[in-house]
Amino acid sequence: MHFEILGEIKEIETIAIGGNIRDIMRIQKKYGVGRWRKLKGIAKVRLENGNICEAEIHWYEAHGIGKKKLKIKRILDLK
Hints:
The protein has one helix and four strands. It is mostly beta strands. The radius of gyration is 13 Å and the shape is elongated. It starts with a strand and ends with a strand.
């Protein structure tokens, strides 16, 4: 699902760090070695069909590499 984040991500929480990330080997192979963290937060997003809603977003992030593999985990409020 393609989407665009509108504004900033709020209520950011760390889910896992380093070796506790299930896909750490695949992430390091694709994006490089770093101090990887899996995070989640709430953001307003625009979906492919143009609808705007609040959604829970999950992604991986490492210092110097940035956010990778953003995905919508669930839709919270469809407007």
